TrEMBL record:
It comes from Corynebacterium amycolatum. One of its GO terms (biological process) is cobalamin biosynthetic process. Keywords: Transferase. This is Cob(I)yrinic acid a,c-diamide adenosyltransferase. Pfam families: CobA_CobO_BtuR. GO terms for molecular function: ATP binding; corrinoid adenosyltransferase activity.
Length: 206
């Protein structure tokens, strides 16, 4: 990478030092119709783990039967931290099988209530600075479906204490989410093997 590639285009007149600006928490949104939104978020989480950060992952839509590859890797990294102290702790919670803290099995009928419960738990954790790095995977969907109030999300993100990074993924991100975010990436599909009838492959889709 060329030197200076990641330098900002301008230096803000905010009275902060470079070190202080590097301590500002990031709110990120990965959206768009293309592949890679969650994968990119988990890649960021792996970087955060390597820096010793406490990682909290909350999956809002994916089926409990689908064991994504990133989950296995992140759980192994969490175990490595528990055994050796390397990296940081990792928690992984899935709405589809009942949130880990409640152990309630979800059904089609109560997905909206389960999504609201998950958001309330995340709010509590943000208020208490439980994690350093949050992945809210497929979080745009329960907002789009009206299960979670986007204004409450925006207010919570704006007012969260400390240095807690939050990355949210999913298609059709609400414009208010985009506005509150510091980092927004839209994944656009140019072409995909499934366009010509090919099936998902190990190491690519899961």
């Amino acid at each position: 990478m060329a030197q200076g590639k990641l330098d900002p285009k301008s230096i803000p007149n905010d009275g902060l030092t470079t070190r202080q600006r590097r301590m500002i928490p990031i709110t990120a949104v990965h959206t768009g119709p293309g592949k890679g939104k969650s994968t990119a978020a988990f890649g960021m989480a792996m970087r955060a783990w390597n820096q010793g950060m406490n990682i909290g992952v909350f999956q809002f839509v994916k089926s409990a039967k689908w064991k994504v590859g990133e989950e296995a890797v992140m759980r192994r990294l969490g175990g490595l931290h528990d055994d050796t102290g390397e990296g940081g702790p990792v928690e992984w919670h899935k709405m589809g099988e009942g949130w880990s803290w409640s152990r309630k099995q979800g059904t089609e009928e109560d997905h909206a209530a389960a999504a609201a419960e998950g958001w309330q738990e995340i709010k509590r954790r943000l208020e208490n600075e439980v994690h350093d790095f949050y992945v809210l995977d497929e979080f745009t969907y329960p907002i789009k479906w009206g299960w979670i109030d986007v204004d409450d999300v925006v207010k919570t993100l704006r007012n969260r204490p400390g240095r807690q990074h939050v990355v949210m993924t999913g298609r059709d991100a609400d414009p208010k989410l985009v506005e509150v975010a510091d980092l927004v990436t839209e994944m656009s599909k140019i072409k995909h093997p499934m366009d010509v009838g090919r099936k998902g492959q190990k190491g690519i889709e899961w």
